[in-house]
Write a structure and sequence with these properties.
Blueprint: H1 2-20, H2 27-34, H3 68-83, E1 101-108, E2 114-124, E3 130-137, E4 142-149, E5 155-161, E6 168-171, H4 189-192, E7 196-204, E8 207-217, E9 223-229, E10 237-244, E11 250-259
Antiparallel strand pairs: 1-2, 1-11, 2-3, 3-4, 4-5, 5-6, 7-8, 8-9, 9-10, 10-11
Length: about 270
């Protein structure tokens, strides 16, 4: 069951990164690095009491396969490094107020199955750290994380509900695996100004918005993304179309809801 969970979570992470149009992120490398089997530590051998035979040496332990907790950590690392700056803007310039969230729907031309994604700023603390959450829903599963982000854009604490026990679990993510913390690696609005095509009023499920229309091709991949951005929307993104130039497949994303009054679902604060 745990092996199936690892595979399921890895596939979910990879699928969403493709849907979100994270073109230059190496999903396979990130997932492979994080689900590599971890060796188990063996306790040091203790001398036998005087007059007793020394116990036989125990065979070395085999590397342990990844369990549910490690699978969730792997998945969080892939999501965080690869997609959080969707729309070019990260934590430091996201336009969210406490309690605000946005819900997106992504649909790929490959299978036409929608994926919904919620991103919300739950609380800003006195020390400028922030509690965020994301929630991903597919036709097969629902995944929810709440996590604490420092002023430098790195996640310092992550919480989730264990699917087997129902208990809320917590881990400290490896800072070294957060290779692209949001808010630090994404280009600024000024840098992206040269990719502006025009201004358009766009109608999506969440409403009609006056937007700036951009078209950007990633020089490190064969993909391009067309985006409609409004500074009045938390997270700024209203609509996006990602095109894979190798196979001409597309993923379409649109804002379907702007939330208010969003709070912790896991008792994080």
């Amino acid at each position: 069951m745990r092996k199936r969970l690892v595979i399921s979570l890895a596939v979910a992470a990879a699928a969403f990164l493709v849907l979100a149009g994270c073109m230059s992120f190496d999903v396979g490398s990130a997932i492979g690095k994080q689900i590599a089997p971890q060796p188990q530590q063996q306790p040091a051998a203790q001398p036998a009491p005087s007059g007793q035979a020394q116990p036989a040496a125990q065979p070395a332990a085999q590397p342990a396969g990844p369990g549910a907790a490690y699978a969730y950590q792997m998945q969080f690392g892939a999501f965080y490094s690869g997609f959080w700056s969707m729309g070019w803007f990260g934590y430091k310039d996201g336009g969210y107020k406490d309690g605000q969230g946005t819900i997106w729907k992504f649909t790929s031309s490959r299978d036409n199955k929608p994926v919904t994604f919620e991103r919300a700023l739950l609380k800003t603390n006195a020390d400028s750290t922030q509690w965020w959450r994301f929630k991903l829903d597919t036709d097969k599963q629902s995944i929810l994380y709440e996590f604490l982000v420092g002023p430098d854009g790195y996640a310092t604490k992550v919480r989730y509900k264990d699917p087997d026990s129902g208990a809320v679990q917590e881990f400290v993510p490896d800072k070294g695996q957060q290779s692209q913390p949001s808010g630090t690696h994404v280009p600024s609005r000024e840098e992206y100004a040269k990719y502006k095509v025009d201004s358009q009023t766009v109608k999506v499920q969440a409403g009609s918005f006056a937007t700036d229309h951009y078209l950007y091709t990633d020089p490190q991949s064969s993909g391009s993304v067309e985006s409609w951005v409004s500074m009045t929307v938390p997270g700024y993104m209203v609509k996006s179309i990602y095109t894979n130039k190798k196979n001409n497949q597309t993923s379409n994303g649109e804002l379907i809801q702007i939330e208010s009054g969003v709070s912790t679902a896991l008792g994080s604060y």
